[in-house]
């Protein structure tokens, strides 16, 4: 064995986090804590709202509630550990803990890719084939698509985790990041990362590429169908039903592909941390806002819920 190398799986990793900017520790902690709490509150609120309102029990909102659940799980695989590490001098994580964090983060990321593809297909079925919509998006098919999304996501996590954590990592095992992400782990490896990078590329192409293709093809048919609508008002209404989903797709795929497809040779610590914060914390917080602000049915459901609360408060006042 070469001196200075340790392949023991029992060794811990040391996360540097944001220790390069000690003057910003308090500000960053408050900022990330606020983002995490808002992510939990808004996504949980959206899930509860969809469950409570019967007129939201449709395929689109079924997938949206699953997307909110995935966003909560996605950011929770990283945020609690990151927030706790702000108060620690030694930000250590075990080998198994690092592998588990990477597995759930990648698995939920892959699941979100698949769910976004399923939601694109749902919009295609609603706009391009409205007469067959109930057949194409029956409850059985929706559950099957959601199950396939979770299975595909976790298969992605399993393959990538197995590929990365069979590498030999140099001592000291210092990860210049706030969680166990792919680029800093590849940089830390003392063994050849060629096979792992090939596996990563193939998995990203298989899951992310296939999902992106489904989205592109679906929107190709959607645009064709919308352009056939005679009235401007009809076209605008049809495009508005896709605007929220399309915004989410652009944000998620743009930041994710930038992070995972660039070469480890060009790895930039600060750049990757900023991008990771964006797709790991900010996007899960923004998704429910994007869907709520641009969706009339959700706005109506919120108004209806507020009306019920006022009515209940009034009843409590008049009934002794």
Keywords for this structure?
mainly alpha, Rhopdopsin 7-helix transmembrane proteins, three-stranded mixed sheet, 3 strands, disordered N terminus
Structural class: mainly alpha
Query: What spatial form do the alpha-carbon principal axes imply?
Result: globular
The biggest beta sheet is recorded as:
3 strands, mixed
Quaternary state of this entry equals single chain
CATH architecture: Up-down Bundle
Proportion of β residues?
under 5%
CATH superfamily label: Rhodopsin 7-helix transmembrane proteins
Separate helix tally = 11
| First-residue to last-residue Cα separation | 80 Å
Reading side by side through the largest sheet, how are the strands ordered? 2-1-3
CATH names the topology as Rhopdopsin 7-helix transmembrane proteins
Could you outline the blueprint of secondary structure elements for this entry?
Elements (H helix, E strand, L loop, with lengths): L12 E3 L9 H28 L6 H18 L2 H7 L6 E2 L1 H34 L4 H4 L2 H26 L9 E2 L6 H7 L5 H34 L4 H30 L7 H25 L2 H23 L2
Parallel strand pairs: 1-3
Antiparallel strand pairs: 1-2
Helix pairs in contact: 1-2, 1-10, 2-4, 2-10, 4-6, 4-8, 4-9, 6-8, 8-9, 9-10
Question: Quick recap of the structure?
Answer:
This protein is mostly helical. The protein has helices at about 25-50, 60-75, 80-85, 95-130, 135, 140-165, 180-190, 195-225, 230-260, 270-295, 295-320, and strands at about 15, 90-95, 175. It has one domain: Rhopdopsin 7-helix transmembrane proteins (Up-down Bundle), CATH 1.20.1070.
């Amino acid at each position: 064995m070469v001196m200075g190398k340790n392949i023991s799986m029992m060794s811990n990793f040391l996360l540097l986090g944001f220790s390069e900017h000690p003057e910003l520790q308090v500000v960053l902690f408050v900022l990330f804590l606020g983002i995490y709490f808002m992510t939990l509150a808004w996504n949980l609120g959206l899930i509860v709202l969809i469950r409570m309102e019967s007129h939201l029990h449709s395929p689109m909102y079924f997938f949206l509630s699953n997307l909110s659940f995935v966003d909560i799980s996605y950011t929770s695989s990283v945020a609690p550990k990151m927030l706790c590490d702000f108060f620690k001098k030694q930000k250590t994580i075990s080998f198994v803990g690092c592998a588990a964090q990477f597995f759930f983060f990648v698995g939920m990321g892959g699941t979100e890719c698949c769910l976004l593809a399923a939601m694109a297909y749902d919009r295609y079925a609603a706009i391009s084939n409205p007469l067959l919509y109930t057949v194409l998006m029956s409850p059985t098919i929706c559950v099957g698509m959601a199950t396939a999304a979770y299975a595909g996501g976790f298969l992605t996590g399993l393959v990538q985790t197995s590929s990365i954590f069979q590498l030999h990592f140099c001592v000291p095992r210092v990860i210049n990041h706030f969680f166990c992400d792919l680029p800093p782990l590849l940089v830390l490896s003392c063994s050849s990362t060629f096979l792992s990078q090939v596996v990563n590329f193939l998995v990203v192409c298989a899951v992310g590429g296939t999902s992106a293709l489904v989205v592109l093809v679906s929107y190709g048919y959607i645009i064709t169908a919308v352009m056939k609508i005679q009235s401007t008002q009809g076209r605008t209404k049809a495009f508005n039903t896709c605007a929220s989903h399309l915004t989410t797709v652009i944000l998620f795929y743009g930041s994710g592909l930038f992070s995972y497809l660039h070469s480890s040779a060009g790895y930039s610590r600060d750049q990757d941390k900023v991008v990771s914060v964006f797709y790991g914390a900010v996007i899960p917080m923004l998704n429910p806002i994007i869907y709520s602000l641009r969706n009339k049915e959700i706005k109506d459901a919120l108004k209806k819920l507020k009306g019920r609360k006022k009515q209940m408060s009034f009843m409590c006042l008049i009934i002794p």
